[in-house]
Please model this.
Amino acid sequence: MRLTFDKTNPLGMTESDRWPKAGSRGFSSRVARRALGFLFALALVPALAQNPADKVSPVNPLPQDTGAAGLNEMLLRLPTTARLLHITAHPDDEDGGMLTLESRGRGVTAELLTLNRGEGGQNKVGSNLFDVLGVLRTLELTASDRYYRVEQRFTRVADFGFSKTADETFQKWQGHDIALADMVRVIRTFRPDVIVSRFGGTDRDGHGNHQASGILSGEAFRAAADPNRFPEQIAEGLPPWQAKKLYIDNVCPFRSNECPAKDYTVKLSTGEMNPALGMTYVQFAMQGLKRQLSQGAGGWSVDAGPHYAFYRLLDSALPSTTDGDGHEKDFFDGIDTTLPGLATRLGDEGKKVPFLKPALVNLDNVAAHARAAAAHDLNLAVNALLTGFQSTNALIAQIETSSLSAGGRNALLAELITKQAQFEAAANLAAGIQLEVDADVPIASDAEDAFMAVPGQTFGATVRVTAGAGAVVKRIELDVPPGWTAKQVGAPETGLARFQVTVSPEAQYTKPYWHRAEPEIDAINTVDDTNYATLPFPPAPVEAHVIYALNEREGIARRVLMVRYKEPDGTESKRPLAVAPPFSIALEPGNAAISTSHPGNTEITVGLRSNIATSGEAQLRLELPKAWSAEPSGQKVGFDHPGESKNFNFQIRPADLREGHYQVKARLDYRGKSYDLGYSVVTRSDLDTFYYYQPAIQRLSIVDVKVLKNLKVAYIMGAGDDIPTILKQVGVDVSLVPAEKLRTEDLSRYGTIVLGIRAYDTEKDVATNNKKLLDYVSDGGTLIVQYNASVSDFNSGHFTPYPAQLSRARVSVEEAPVDILAPDDSVFHYPNQITPKDFEGWVQERGLYFMDQWDEHFKALLACHDPGEGPQKGGLLRARYGKGTYIYAGYAFFRQLPVGVPGAIRLYVNLLSAGHDQDFLGARP
Model:
């Protein structure tokens, strides 16, 4: 199964459950709102559609990181040791303009620590939610990072949905210490000079996750230096580290390029033009942010001109570094970030390594010589860079065997290893070294069928090297994990080597190293392999390295092994080799519901994809709840060739049809091993690729729900949700009607029409045909409108039959008590009796984008509220319009129905039945 997430949507704001309250600033708000301000009123114009940024290869360097531009930027990095850690809560919170300025404009080594992966947010490009959305957003954020030029890290805590308070966030995250431990680990590993928190930890930050990240940043700044905090990390070899300064963002007026002087310490000009980038720093960062399409970022832009980022110094381990007005020129004021300054940082310990200061001075001179030479003589520049590379290697070896304390040695090695990588990259750019490392397998016809290695398998690989004049390839090697083998085959050729690769029978699958047993409930991820803790993903399994020589100096270049496939437009793409199980097993769909009145058997489909040929030796079976039965009990499975997919159907019969939640598992037995995992390929043409794994389980809910006979329902999909699937399973006669057919569709065929989530936001034909929908209601039909996120567009469109105002009001606590305001209304009685018990077991949230004003024609049906707030009554409204019924439903049915919440299913069926109390008298028993 391929999850491409490539649906285009009308331009909208960034995900609203991420935005701070008025008075705060965000990366996107600061740079995008000026452009978006005039677009809100035009969001229904067809031309304003969100699309990926200009296509670039997700696996090759950006054009700005190649050739002379890439070399000059790398040369900028060599003389500085400045290190910056930026901390945020979610993907898209980051200040990309600041990061791009510091990293690309000033040579700073930067890292972005995002506490969670955004898995609890809304998906603006498809129906996939929870952990598969987290994988997608990790891919999107790491694609953005390539523009910011930063490394990425995460913690174990999950985005559990919108939160209004830090207290709720910490309750879900089981206190402070789980997130804090991971933040301290990142600080002790990266050893930043400064920490820059996106948020300050106050109500001003809006989202409870934002507030929590600000609070935790302040705690982590000091805790990372405390040997009594998380001593298990110190035992692992991560000594305490005290960053020098902590700054916070979100200190100046929302959307403003101006800030009172008393409110900030550092003012950064992110609107400066960088000729090598061809635009300003903040504009280039916006090109990266556009990769985050699931947040709605595809249509954003920012004009050239002044743009500023303001930060306040919150804590410092240094004497005062501000001027008389309380300002600094840069984050690193008062910090020695020169190469020779590394020796000074050791203090008295420096006496143990008397060779260090002269060696660092020499490296600094070599870097300066390389930068001076690059402008007129690349050969001289390469000589200097390779000299710097070899000298750094030698210095690392000396420090590793020195008598420095663990803390001093590790801090110094972190800096030197960074310099080693920078000298290596700069030398390769100057010498024109390029590698192509490809698996010798057929080019797949699409991304889903791209080759994946299976444990125990053997395949070929070819490494091709091109180099500038004078460079001589001395050795080509393929680096493989333990248990694998890579044997060079064939006669040696200049710049080319072929290998036979054998995968270890125990090879690890290419899969997330974290998981949640119950993604709808759990707010902490379990880390399955601590070797990868805090990384975005595990690294690719196979990498080639090439040793080359130039003017008697040696360099090294590296590249991971790739597989090739075709894009839909016929162009060839690549992605890193992945390891997969012999079989991928999935029950379709993963969540299902049946009615207690369902007659006879229920069909379950098991989808299998094979990465090997089996000749009918495998046996597929189901594992059922006690006393349940399946027909057949098992099925023989055979595949003629790798990459083949087949579906197998089983008829299951529950022991009885009592309401409850059950699990059906699928298992494939093959040659003494049992397989019970399935994976999906998560990719998009502008993103890298990764894989989402799930156990082969169907979560089956048996629901006591009555459904009207002969009621035909039309469902017009918006951004994408799985509600129609569940409705069909419980017996509703529902048809999917494409929005583009609204103009010609005979709506009188349907008793009820439902608009999927964000239909007005994403489907221009819904807005265009709104009068037809209202006429349908007036003629006696029932129309259910679910939430939309583009509040100003919805309100200016006047889509409701009577005046009503959509707002961003929401109830984020899923257990919030619900009051039935109109107990006599038929939606609480027909065809199902609704009681307070039906609001138990809801997941993530009650609802979002409630109405906050409506005229007397509307009747509020329910009320609920988050702690400390007043009742929110605009989440479920009903109005009589002409002969028909209009319902606005902001309650989060799109989350509840797919996971089988019984009460939500009953209430939703009642909403479908509203207005048909007399027309359809026969409810199924």
Q: What stands out?
A: Residues 406-431 form the longest helix (26 residues). Residues 120 and 160 are 5 Å apart (CA to CA). The radius of gyration is 30 Å. The chain has five domains: 8-50+82-316+323-333, 338-430, 434-572, 583-702, 705-913.
